[in-house]
Amino acid sequence: MTATLWAQRTVVSGKVVDESNGSPIAGASVSVEGVSVVTNDDGFFTLKSDHEAEAVVVSHVGYKSQRVKVGGQELKIKLKPATIQLHEVLITADNPRDLVMAAISKIPQNYSQQPELYSCFYREKAMKRQHYISVAEGVIDMYKTGYQRSSVRDRVAIRKGRRLLSAKQSDTLGVKVMGGPVAPIQLDLVKNTDFLLNAQELDYYDLKMEAPTMIADRNQFVVSIMPRAILPYALYFGKLYIDQETLSFTRAELMLDMGDREKATVAMLVKKPLGVRFRPRELSCIVDYRLGNDGVTRISYIRTTFRFNCDWKRRLFATSFVVFCEMAVTSTTDRDVQPIRGRESFDQRDAFFDKVDYFRDPAFWQDYNIIEPTESLDKAIHRLLKK
b vs e for 48-79, b when ≥16 Cβ sit within 10 Å of the residue's Cβ? Predict the structure, then answer.
């Protein structure tokens, strides 16, 4: 059912594409009345809201936002590339480090100082060569204390989830990489400033101003980072996006330096079976933040990609694997928020597969907002269900 309304419930579905070439836009934000989702890799989305809505707002980095009326058919939304018009600001584009440090100093002003509860959709999927071997997804609650505090008390809990694993013994991965449902806590670099956003850590990087862009019709500074030091741990290449007006961090794109395989392995690997050699190839992540109508910037989307090879001692060739994890915040509240208790929370040492049920239930998601599966993932799920 597309773009339908009943009993004050709105369900809108559609596809978001680039106006110039018609290519799908992945990771575009689609929101209405405090509820949001993101488009999948094919550009498709479905959004459900308890409120009757006349229009949805669609935005993505580098494009002009659109407010699109809800109709009776599936929406085809064409986004136009944004035109940048930078205004004069006190901090010039000649001092990227000063800009980043100023943005760090404004974190207490730009981000929530109150405990909040986030409702999120989470999915992880693993591929062996070109074939999916596992899918797990769920709705999670994420409790976050105010940004003036550390993330020690921040927790996630699984509200509902399901899993699907290839029945072939040869498809068994047995390797656990970093990430999982706790990634939104670990990779919230604005709150976990020890990760990157502090004066000492920034000394290990060269910073450079890049061409500005727009996110949600707001001008953004773009600062690239590149390792300049050799440390006991791996550093990152990437870009930081900073709102020109508020100086809030709105997006981070990071890729782990793979120059030292041992350091990269420490950053990526949690555990592996005996006799398996782990060879890292890529760890990249995207962290998005969104400015709310109340003037507060909040984390909204995280996506991580892990690529690696595994060598078995008695096998001639290595096998390539890819693990994708993504989380989208669908709604947020600060009313009557209670912490998630320790025994209810998901631990970073836990495996998501061990915490959720099997896949077979066509009405599993009901009224929950999810990231639509891509066409290739949907086909893979049907194949795995038949095995």
Answer: bbeeebeebebbbbebbbbebebeeeebebbb
